[in-house]
Structures are given as C-alpha cells and as structure tokens.
C-alpha cells in the first residue's frame, strides 16, 4: 500500500527542495490520505500531480486529517483547485440579480 504514494514522494521532494520536509509530508500523506486517495482518486494513482490535483478538487470530501496534508502538498507542487471545482454553487446563487426592478414605475 505504501507504494501507491511513492511517486508523490518523489515529485514533492523535488518541488519542496528539502528532503526532510518532503519525507514528513509523505509520511503524513500516507498516514492521513491513503484511504481517500484510493477511494476518491484511484484512477490518478501513479501520477503524482494528477493525484494531488484530484485530492485538491475533492477537498470537501476528504477526512479532516487529510485536508491540511493535501493543502501542504498542493502548495509544494503549486497546484490550485480546477476551475470547475473552485466555482461554488452557493456563491452563484447569492449573486445579485441583474434584472432591473420595475416596481417604482
């Protein structure tokens, strides 16, 4: 099971530039996020950037312990939420209407 996230370790180590920091992050990732990675992003396992992107995009579905670990990995790899995942339906609903109000005529 550890081998599933090994490619992520290599990518994060290269991006982070500090082997100790990357080791800590990978240890945390394996401990906190392995189940979520297998459950939510199994088709991305083997491709570190796509796996982290998938976890970032599904952040709301991650167990609480995995969320900060994914945030750290995303920062190390400069990964941000995909545009379709970043758009919040609740934000769209609360936007003011552009239809003019004709009640004062």
Give a quick summary of the entry.
The protein is mainly alpha-helical. The chain has helices at 6-16, 19-40, 48-57, 67-77, 83-86, 89-93. It has one domain.
What does the model show?
By secondary structure, this protein is mainly alpha-helical. It has one domain. 60% of the residues lie in helices and 0% in strands. The chain contains 6 helices and no strands. The model is unreliable at 88-100 (pLDDT under 50).
Mean pLDDT: 74
Question: SSE order in H/E notation?
Answer: HHHHHH
Largest sheet: none
Terminus-to-terminus distance: 69 Å
Question: How many separate structural domains?
Answer: 1
Backbone shape: globular
Structural class: mainly alpha
């Amino acid at each position: 099971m550890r081998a599933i996230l090994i490619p992520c370790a290599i990518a994060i180590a290269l991006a982070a530039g500090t082997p100790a920091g990357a080791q800590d992050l990978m240890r945390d990732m394996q401990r906190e996020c392995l189940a979520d990675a297998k459950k939510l992003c199994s088709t991305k396992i083997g491709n570190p950037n796509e796996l982290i992107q998938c976890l970032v995009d599904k952040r709301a579905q991650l167990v609480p312990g995995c969320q900060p670990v994914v945030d750290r990995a995303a920062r190390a790899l400069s990964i941000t939420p995909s545009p379709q995942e970043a758009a919040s339906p609740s934000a769209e609903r609360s936007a003011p209407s552009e239809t003019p109000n004709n009640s004062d005529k």
